[in-house]
Sequence to fold (110 residues):
Amino acid sequence: KDALNDLLGEEKLEDVSWALKSEQSTTLFAEGDTIGVTYDQSSGRPTLEFYHNGDKMPGCSIAGLSGLVCPAVGVTDGVELTGNFSMEEADFEFMPPQGFSGIIPSRSMI
Fold:
């Protein structure tokens, strides 16, 4: 928190949201599990939804995001993590929910 405070400044610290922590969820994660994330900008302010082995995790969404969104992942106790940031559906362990696809590269609007 101190490093984050140094980066953002005291007045911005209250604006920071942490989307998913293991103690927030009733889901127990195990080796080989897949955690999915959707980022929806289609209906108003963006929303993040989280999935465990293809099933939406109840109570683990963040709605009304604004400003810059930078995904980050942290693990402890020697846990290993493999990220999949593919654009191809064939590369996913579980298919994205209807209306979603893999990572879409940013594009200039100008």
Notes: The first strand starts at residue 35 and ends at 40.
